[in-house]
Structure prediction request, 478 residues.
Amino acid sequence: MEYYSDECDMPVSPNAQYFNSSVMSFCILGVLELEIPFDDSQSLTLLKNVFLPINPRFSSIMVGDRNGVQKWKRVEVKLEDHIKVPSFPAGLSPELYDKYFNDYLSKISLDQFPQNKPLWEVHVLKYATSNAAGHIIFKLHHALGDGFSLMGALLSCLQRADNPSLPLTFPSRESSSTRDGKNNGILGGLGRVFTGVADTVLDFGSIFVKDGQTPIRSGEDGAEFRPNVITTLTFSLDRVKQIKAKLGVTINDVITGVIFLGTRLYMQQSSSTKDDHNEQQGNTNATALVVLNTRALGGYKTIEEMVQTKSEMPWGNHFTFLHVSIPKLSGGATNDQANLNPLRFVKEAHRIIKRKRNSAVVYLTGWMLEILRKFGGPEVAAQYFYNTMKNSSIAMSNLIGPVEKMALAKHPIKGLYFTFIGSPESLAITIMSYIGELRITIRMEKGFIDPKKFNSCIQKAFDMIFKAAVQNTLPPNS
Prediction:
């Protein structure tokens, strides 16, 4: 089946050039977990009539002119080349199909897109695992758009399961309920300005810091080409909101604090079996690279609104990143957790991220990339971008999902999660909400990070924070 449109070529944005360069190839995997087996006879029709019309980039390839300027060029799309239906042995148990699914997910995360075809694929897995009756995986190159754009595109293919005629709704944008003594006078305003300047100076210097080798960072070249393991954890959004209400912070603060504490617990456990020198690696400096959407968020917009020329939430790659130092365990890397205050990690996450947002470094980062691109070219800027990610220990990103259950062509969606691939960190963590749950997806370097131990530490961190915040069971002397 062929699909073609003769729309004019479009310029490729600088960020899209960075993501699809000789330095890196950065993609997003979006996974839909189905409640019932999928009828793949509808696949080609859905792609032609629903997916391709979303944006011309889905029918385009990146080409360069004689001056090296990159453009999106419309091409014929042979849909059969973009839909993959793997074949596994028949008659196995859901637990055995779990392994086949996980191995397949890891495999396609390492496969590179051919540059002579549009940069997307859809994988239909029709085998029931312990989590779902089947899976649909969207593999989308980050050059097509950022997570906000691509998730908006994906959601536009779905409908509400209860009533397809009604639109999906999303949680309202939250802000911390904490009031830190707002000072609206002139002196208060000047204080915030000077504080912002000082924060900017400190934060801009942190961009150039390189983390050392630790239990969560191998530091080896080419980590993006090594096999990985992708796992998920699910937390009740109601329980997260209980912690949020008790501490007067945001949901993002809570889940970031959980990840930070769980990461430190893992680093501690991975180091404690070795000598005293290695044990201190549990408290070694470690940096999280937190991706920050620069749009004025208020929920997803329709594709028609996103592609408008002066859209408030435009299609494309509109983001920056924050360098956040992971708080250390108090008292050093010790196995004695009796006196550990887990709430400190949530409060530190709240304080640090709030301060980072007050800093102009988020704009300076974009400015620096643009300077490098203008004077050195896209490849030089891409190399800087790559090094920034490689020098950090964790990459983190989050997206907001709908409140209602969705369906794809009348197939209810049981679960939804995403991760990004092609980045050089040993550890990447993404978070997404969907119908009352928070799904944490953890991509880790296979053979370097222990997935069971790491997941256990994240779960333990959540339990510790919930217990301390909601049940008021802080340890003594905390």
Q: What stands out?
A: Residues 251-272 form the longest helix (22 residues). Residues 120 and 140 are 5 Å apart (CA to CA).
